[in-house]
Design goal:
With 100 residues, the protein is an all-alpha fold. Helix content is 85%, strand content 0%. It has three helices and no strands. The longest helix has 35 residues. The chain is elongated and about 55 Å long. The termini are far apart.
Length: 100
């Protein structure tokens, strides 16, 4: 994985963690906070799914080493996005179970 891709991944992960913690410690009732968090996580999930689709669609590289490297980057990004989606699903399940 290239340094730029790695830095982007850590930046996005840091932003998501900061947002999550900020919302978690918001001065509103827990139920309202959980509802807002569920809504935002579902929006992030949609955006990640769209990003995966865009990455797969835009994988038109010329035949060469650049194509192989590009496919590797797309594959790595897809795997990381899928892991993020799994984490979002787990968080949403936890939030729903706490609010019941």
């Amino acid at each position: 994985m290239s340094k730029a891709t790695s830095n982007l991944f850590f930046y996005i992960t840091g932003c998501a963690t900061g947002i999550f913690l900020g919302i978690l410690y918001a001065p509103q009732k827990g139920e309202i906070t959980r509802d807002r968090l569920t809504f935002r996580l579902s929006k992030y999930k949609e955006q990640i799914e769209k990003l995966i689709a865009d990455l797969v669609d835009s994988a038109d590289f010329p035949e060469s080493m650049a194509k192989a490297e590009g496919e590797k980057v797309v594959s790595d990004a897809r795997e990381k996005a899928e892991r993020l989606l799994e984490d979002v699903d787990k968080l949403m399940a936890q939030i729903k179970s706490q609010s019941n």
